[in-house]
Write a structure and sequence with these properties.
- It is a single chain.
- The chain has 22 helices and 19 strands.
- By secondary structure, it is α/β, with parallel strands linked by helices.
- The two termini are about 35 Å apart.
- It has 3 domains: about 40 residues, no CATH class; about 140 residues, no CATH class; about 250 residues, 3-Layer(aba) Sandwich (Rossmann fold).
- Helix 18 runs parallel beside helix 19 and helix 19 crosses helix 21.
- A 9-stranded mixed sheet has the order 5-6-7-2-1-8-9-12-13, with helices on both faces. It has a 6-stranded parallel sheet with strand order 16-15-14-17-18-19, sandwiched between helices.
- The structure holds pyridoxal-5'-phosphate.
- Pyridoxal-5'-phosphate binds next to helix 3, helix 18 and helix 19.
């Protein structure tokens, strides 16, 4: 470990040690624990403004929480689900407002005479099956009609999921991003969700907007304040002070726009205050509007999702000034994504506490990790992975099993261009040699967005390449319909995971966090949240050209594979990763960072 890396780590510890002090050893179940947690937080003046009736409110168009009936698309939804789970464990009053989509997509592959056939099915989802209660309904105005939205809720400890829904609501991200249906969904979440909050008897202490699709929630609040007689400028100031805009995107230019005409049909009819309507009308430029520009106007608090992302996100306000974002790096809910055995191991060793935060002396405790334990835990993880693989068909519709003693590489994330899922297939002979020499397997999993023909074709090419070579066919598998179950199982049961986004394009990413916490080796480019730590704390891919990066990737694969056969190297690398990333990974640390920023 370099001294520079170590110094940095100590700085992070200072940041998180307020709750970990004295709080080891028993689970957060009884009331004393809860009081202890609050006492710790209150010493730092964090939650005085949050109460049961005035909760932290979190607005998101996407939630990835299938246990509670809602399937997301990727990282944005996983983050929302993890944030709520962490709030529940920490007993923070927290309400997540999101649509309940009455239909969801599933992706399938089949081998036909002329290649791999990819098709999507649409399946109905009923909220009644997931323990939601119907509260009542609210109305919004869209396209000259009154749309009735059902308000449903599910209480989970100190938190709840509050949803608006109706049979015609459609699927997540259906239609064009600047299209009428998308605007309808966003308006329904904002104006409908704000009324839903009232219906549940709640006032928001803070509104966190998880990306700009939730802008209308803050607009609904501004409208309510102004309509109820608050001076318009005071209402703007008040709304701004209580709204946090969390940005996950890098370039504003890439964002879809809406037209004045669309707002005339979907947005203005829902506004009661003439002053607010006029304010919004003035924000159009050449008859078009980008939601980020108005979200920036309505939210004084703004955050990005990793240090690098907060620094490079290129956004300007309407006056043309560059927008500053506070870095709050994403974390994950450790118990959700980590095998029970590993959680117990890290807890018993005194590396994490009962809030899943690194302990005060986690750096010293990490030194007591033993390679034999890592190998044993990974074997248990492999069994758990194989149980999941037994019910998840591969691209041929067949079920695979990865031998207990074999090495497993994985690439699991949405198939979008910048994440480069094809990178390891750039030189098939080299890949084949690595896999063969180390008795290794490679699992790819990730969904192509419907309509992304370019990526669908790239995936076809990989599948055809694998199909044409007996050795690759024996060792490389694609698992369709990537979801939370596969994400978790692969993190638990794989030895080496690969994360190779084009540097500068990943906002944070959280899949790699799941891999590190489960004692796997990470091969990654220095991007997103990975770049929060030093580049020598993991198996770093570097290079000035893509060809150099490909070279570097193969070298790292060889290095990682060799480490799993040499206890000393494995132990060294795992300790290095955990020391650098544990505070970053902890979702409790993330929530605490948000609370610190907000109050
Ligand atoms: C963890 C997870 C993600 C996050 O993906 P990143 O590409 O790392 O942001 C997305 N989808 C699923 C199903 C996950 O489990």
């Amino acid at each position: 470990m370099t001294s520079v890396g170590r110094k940095k780590k100590v700085d992070i510890v200072k940041d998180t040690d307020f709750v970990s002090k004295n709080l080891l050893s028993h689970p957060l179940e009884n009331i004393e624990d809860v009081e202890e947690f609050y006492a710790a937080i209150n010493r730092h003046h964090l939650t005085h403004a949050i109460t049961k009736d005035r909760p932290y409110t979190y607005w998101t168009i996407e939630l990835y929480d299938k246990k509670n009936g809602i399937r997301g698309g990727g990282g944005l939804g996983v983050l929302a689900a993890d944030t709520r789970r962490v709030a529940e464990q920490s007993n923070v009053p927290f309400v997540l407002i999101t649509p309940f989509y009455p239909s969801e997509q599933h992706q399938h592959y089949e081998r036909t005479a002329d290649g791999f056939n990819n098709y999507t099915t649409h399946e109905p989802v009923e909220y009644q099956k997931y323990g939601y209660q119907l509260l009542d309904s609210v109305n919004i105005h869209c396209n000259n009609t009154l749309v009735k939205l059902d308000v449903i809720e599910k209480v989970l400890g100190s938190t709840r999921i509050l949803c608006i829904t109706e049979p015609g609501f459609g699927e997540l991200y259906s239609g064009d991003s600047g299209g009428d249906h998308r605007l309808y969904q966003e308006v329904a979440l904002g104006f409908g969700g704000y009324q839903a909050l009232k219906l549940a008897g709640l006032k928001p202490a803070i509104m966190q907007l998880n990306e700009v699709a939730t802008f209308f929630a803050a607009l609904a609040r501004l409208d309510e304040l102004a309509k109820n007689g608050m001076d318009f400028y005071e209402a703007v100031v008040y709304t701004r002070k209580h709204t946090l805009y969390t940005n996950h995107t890098l370039v504003q230019a890439a964002e879809a726009e809406f037209s004045y005409e669309q707002f005339k049909h979907y947005v203005f009819p829902n506004l009661k205050s003439l002053a607010v309507k006029q304010w919004l009308k003035d924000k159009f430029e050449n008859g078009r509007i980008k939601l980020s520009s108005v979200t920036i106007e309505i939210a004084e608090l703004r955050s990005g999702v990793s240090k690098l992302h907060a620094r490079v996100a290129n956004y300007r306000d309407l006056a043309g000034n560059k927008v500053k974002f506070k870095a709050v790096t994403n974390g994950i809910d450790i118990p959700t994504w980590t095998s029970k055995e590993v959680v117990k191991y890290l807890t018993d060793k005194g590396i994490i506490d009962k809030f899943f935060l690194p302990t005060e002396d986690y750096l010293e405790k990490i030194e007591t990790i033993d390679a034999k334990d890592i190998i044993k835990l990974k074997k248990q993880g492999r069994k758990e992975l194989n149980k999941v693989l037994a019910k998840r068909p591969n691209q041929y519709g067949k079920y695979i099993e990865i031998p207990e003693n074999a090495l497993l590489f994985d690439f699991k994330r949405r198939f979008v261009d910048y994440k480069r899922p094809w990178l390891a297939f750039s030189e098939p002979e080299r890949l084949k040699t690595i896999l063969k020499e180390h008795n290794a397997y490679y699992i790819l999993s990730g969904r192509v967005h419907e309509g992304d023909h370019k990526m669908a074709e790239k995936l076809q090419n990989i599948l055809n390449l694998v199909d044409s070579d007996p050795e690759l066919k024996r060792r490389v598998f694609y698992l369709p319909d990537y979801d939370e179950e596969l994400g978790r199982a692969l993190s638990i049961g794989s030895n080496i995971s690969i994360n190779n986004p084009v540097v500068g394009l990943e906002a944070c990413g959280t899949s790699w966090m799941k891999d590190i916490i489960n004692l796997g080796l990470l091969i990654s480019t220095h991007d997103g949240g990975v770049a929060d730590a030093a580049a020598d704390s993991y198996l770093n891919i570097h290079g000035n050209t893509e060809q150099e990066e490909i070279n570097s990737l193969y070298l790292r694969m060889e290095e990682g594979a060799a480490a799993w056969q040499h206890e000393f190297d494995l132990e060294y690398l795992i300790k290095l990763e955990l020391s650098a990333f544990l505070p970053i990974i902890s979702g409790t640390r993330m929530l605490k960072d948000y609370l610190d920023y907000l109050f």
